Amino acid sequence: MEKAWKKYGEFGWNLLFDMAMCADCMSSKQSEISEESRNNIKAFMAQQNLEAEDGMCAINGKDLSTCEFIQGAFISDGYFTNELYISDDALEDLQNILSKETKDNLDRFTEEQLGPPGAWKDLFSPTRPIIF
Fold first, then answer.
1. Which residues contact 106 (CB under 8 A, 6 or more apart)?
2. Of 2, 93, 1, nearest to 48 (Cα)?
3. Which of 1, 24, 25, 39 is 20 to 30 A from 77 in CA distance terms?
């Protein structure tokens, strides 16, 4: 399951999307990530401190309360759920290392799930969601 939230000043956090995906579908989507993007992600992640504390980004350790946008992935085996939260900065860093092919695939998938860009693009500004 994946969720994304955006902070709207005094109104606080608002849920932008909430998406559940089975393991087979997730695997299928992950197979659409280009080889270039896979290599870039592996190199990027190898440079990060992936020991997340509560309320902190799992990638860069940023305090999530200071973010304008966060995304969360929740993976369950039926008994336990692992939570992974990613800050706006980390999402932007990940977007910057993705190939055009991977970005096009992600945009196409987002359009299929959320509708044409006019319906959602401004909600995700300044970054875009990344479906894990």
1. 98, 128, 129, 130, 131
2. 93
3. 39
